[in-house]
Amino acid sequence: MGRGDVTDREWSLLEPHLPSPGGRGGWWSDHRIVLNGGLFRARTGVPWRDLPERHGSWKTVCERHRRWSVDGAWDRLLQAAWADADLAGRIDWGTVGFDSACCRAHQHTAGSREAKPRLPKRGRHPGTTAPMRDSDGPGAARPPRSTVPVKAAATPWLY
Q: CA 14 to CA 81: how far, in whole Å?
């Protein structure tokens, strides 16, 4: 057993709340090994492919972690751990609190005036199925910026 793995006592409390192994054909990896692999990844932050071999195939651990997230097994494990700690008197509910700190978002995230939506250069008009032409772009009605505008009063022979 590695450092940080689930102990025998913890496993005896968590095992009843896990989905039953089996179902369709094939051999199932032990839930305890997979659970330790998921907890190792959560603790260290390593990519799935870098899990140590003692946790089994990284793909098995990844897929079972995803499956348990979808079917609520992780939530059941958390609820069981809270209930066990509460029954044993290890949680002092008088000191439990919620953090109300807030993080300020960047101005472009909030949709401020500075954050103007851009139209795509090519593709389709936003919200329609009509194809977009190059002349439909945001700057199509403006004169080119690289030339100096000619004034009629300065060159009367052009008009």
A: 8
Q: Is residue 111 part of a domain?
A: no
Helices 73-87, 58-71: axis angle to 10 degrees equals: 70
Cβ density class 17-42: b for 16+ within 10 Å, e for less:
bbeeeeeeeeeeeebbbbbbbbebbe
124 falls within a domain: no
| C-alpha span between 119 and 139 (Å, rounded) | 10
Q: Is there a contact between 51 and 41 (Cβ–Cβ < 8 Å)?
A: yes
| 80: in domain | yes
Q: Residue type for 10, please?
A: E
How many Cβ atoms from other residues are within 10 Å of residue 139's Cβ?
Answer: 9
The pTM (predicted TM-score) of the whole model is: 0.52
Task: Please give the tally of structural domains in the chain.
Answer: 1
SS3 152: coil
pLDDT in tens, 75-98: 888 888 888 888 888 888 777 677
Range from 24-38, 98-112, 137-151 carrying the lowest mean pLDDT: 137-151
**Radius of gyration (C-alpha) of the chain in whole angstroms:** 31
> What is the span of the domain harbouring residue 51?
30-92
